[in-house]
Each structure stands twice: as C-alpha cells, then as structure tokens.
Design a protein that fits this description.
Largest sheet: 3 strands, antiparallel
Strand order of the largest sheet: 1-2-3
Helix content: 55-70%
Structural class: mainly alpha
Number of strands: 3
Shape: globular
Order of helices and strands: EEEHHHHHHHHHHHHHHHH
Distance between the termini: 42 Å
C-alpha cells in the first residue's frame, strides 16, 4: 500500500490554515470580507472603513470610523531622513524595490518596531498603511524632477493619493474609482504575497519584515505585475479594430494574455463586474471610451477562444490609465491596498501561531560515495 502524501504542485487546492478574514466562494463566484459581500462593500463603503473591518473584524460605528480616519491621516508624513534616502536611490530603482527598502527603514524608526503585542501591531499597521502612499508618490515625483506634494489630512485616502501624485485635488468621481479599486484589491485569501507574509509572521519576526517579504512576492509578474502588462498590451493594440487580429495572433503563438484566468475562480472573478462598470462610467465621463472598447473586444475574443474570463487586473489597468496614474505605479498601488489584508493575516497568525514548515519530496540522487578532490 502506497501511503505517500499527495503532492500538490504550487500548493494548489491545499488548505494551509483557518481564517476569519476573507471567504472566497469558488462555486458561487462570491467574495466576502469578514462576512460582508464585496458587492455591498464596493457599493456602500469606502477604503478606510474596509481597512478598519479587515484589521478589527467588524464594521465601525460613525464615531469609531471618524477616529480611525483621523489616526490614519495624522500618520501620512514620512521622516525627512527617509525622503533623503529616496533622493539618493538610483533613478532606475523599481518602485517596488523602493517600497521594500523604505518599509525596512521605517521599522528602524518605529517606536513599536520590536513589539508584537496587539496594541503595538495596530499602531504599526496604521503608520504603515498611512505612509505607503506617501512613499509611492514622493518617489515618483522626485524621480521625475517634480516637487513632492505634502499629504493633506483633510482628504480621503484615495483623494489624498491622487492629489500627492498629480499635484491637484481630484474630482470626486475620480477619487471614487480609485477608492473602489482599493477595496477590491484589499484582501484575497492565501494568495502568494499573503501566504509569504504569514510564513514570515509564523517565525515571530516583526510586522515590517512580513510586509517587506510580501512586497517581494507581489513584485512578480504572475501576481502583482499583471495589470501593468495588461495596459502595455492595450497600448500596443491601440485601436479596437486591431484587437481581434492582435489577440488571435498572440493566441496562435501560444502567448499568455495577461489579466485572464485565476487560480481560484474557474468561472467569473466577482470583482471584475464591479471594476468593469467603473471603467465604463469613467470613460464616458471623460469622453474617452477607447480603452474600454478595446478591453471589451479582447474579453470577447479570449472568452470565446479559450474559455477564460477577466480577473480584477484586466479592467483595473485602464481605470488607472484614465486616472492619469503612470503604469509603473500600478503594482505599488496594489501594495497600498493589499497591505491591509497582509497585516490582518499577520495579526491573525500571531494570535494563533504555529511555525509554517512544509516538507518536500526528494527526487535527487540516492546515496553517493564521496570522492576526494584530488581523485576527481
């Protein structure tokens, strides 16, 4: 009888733990944060409230949310020393590498840096979530010879980001699109970056180290870089009339069409209809339906030819492009959102910890005789 454990390549389908943070219903194509449907949250909530939900496990009342938002907005500034380090980095430094470096440096100056108590981790969480957008926008503007725009505590998380990036306060409908996209990206179970964060946390390392590791995992094009590749594809297609020949040629050459398919969802990504509707409306308000029309054509062809459906990355790419967000910042914005989910999982890991230490099946040489160096 062969009782060897079954190997799941890429850990596909493996249940590696329990969580109360997020539920993904593959069969019904639904997504829930703490029991709340992503549809309800995207329609009725905002990113700050969803952040509170993920970190605390429940929705706040009006006063609690106001206090939480005030704490977040009060922590947006970054130390002058950190700004100077950003200025000294080579201009070609990837924005994701900038985030890894600066998050590590923030740990050294955080008054709660070495403490893993619940209260200390909540204070660290608020500081990190608040400062990451500032790091992203300061790095972008410094690299492009623009004066950094200081954070505005009066503005919401999304509005403040767009203001610091572009130098002017955005129209409410634009910040609303970014806000909803941040909600959609905030959490998604044991994806590669979240699992990485939990592995680091399981060693009882600090919160900043877990976030740094997660950023490294998200940097990979098979995880966080997909929306950047999607927009590059749309720009290369350029016109709705060119979409069909472009995609069919790519498929005939066995090229991967980014933004389609998902390891978990075999049917529709429940976040896709939400972001798709936002892009359509945003394009109409801006008088620019080009990217939506090309995207719709690509979706029709890929779905018909391959049976694959768009994931969140597909339409979010053109949403960010229409908002004037540079393509290299798409994945860093993913960090600005998903860091909330990472921290929620890290905290959950701390509170019911067991070192994550899987095993592997050995497929190398069997025992071999050592031959002294002089006889080889």
């Amino acid at each position: 009888m062969n009782d060897k454990p079954k190997i799941a390549s890429g850990l596909e389908g493996v249940i590696a733990g329990r969580t109360s943070i997020c539920k993904i219903d593959e069969d019904q194509c639904e997504l829930f944060y703490g029991g709340y449907s992503i549809d309800d949250l995207a329609l009725n909530s905002n990113f700050e409230e969803v952040t509170y939900l993920l970190l605390n496990g429940d929705l706040p009342d009006k006063k609690v949310l106001e206090d939480f938002c005030n704490k977040l907005s009060a922590e947006r500034e970054i130390p002058v020393e950190l700004i100077n380090i950003i200025k000294e980095l080579p201009r070609e430094t990837d924005p994701m590498d900038v985030l890894k470096i600066t998050v590590g440096i923030l740990h050294t100056s955080d008054p709660d840096g070495t403490s893993n108590t619940d209260d200390a981790n909540m204070r660290k969480a608020i500081r990190l979530i608040a400062k990451i957008p500032t790091i992203i926008t300061y790095d972008y503007r410094i690299t492009n010879d623009l004066e950094p725009v200081e954070p505005n505590a009066r503005l919401s998380f999304a509005s403040n980001f767009l203001c610091m990036l572009n130098g002017e306060e955005p129209e409410s409908y634009k910040s609303d699109v970014l806000d909803k996209s941040l909600i959609l990206y905030a959490e998604h179970g044991l994806n590669a970056s979240t699992f990485t964060a939990r592995v680091v946390a399981s060693t009882l390392s600090d919160l900043h180290s877990a976030v740094m590791a997660a950023i490294g995992a998200l940097k990979g094009p098979l995880h966080g870089g997909a929306n950047e590749r999607v927009m590059e594809m749309l720009l290369e297609i350029g016109d709705v009339e060119k979409a069909e020949p472009w995609i069919k040629k790519a498929l005939s050459e066995k090229k991967r069409i980014m933004g389609f398919g998902h390891r978990v969802y075999k049917k529709q990504d429940p976040r896709n209809p939400i972001i798709k509707g936002l892009v359509k409306e945003l394009g109409e308000r801006l008088g620019n339906n080009r990217w939506f029309e090309i995207s719709q054509k690509v979706e029709d062809i890929v779905t018909a030819e391959k049976g694959l459906h768009p994931n969140l990355d597909f339409y979010s790419s053109s949403a960010y492009y229409l908002l004037g967000i540079p393509i290299p910042l798409y994945t860093p914005i993913f960090v600005a959102s998903r860091v909330t989910g990472w921290i929620a999982h890290v905290t959950e890991q701390y509170n019911d910890n067991r070192l994550i230490r899987p095993r592997s099946e050995y497929v190398g040489h069997e025992r071999r005789k050592y031959i002294p160096l002089e006889d080889r």
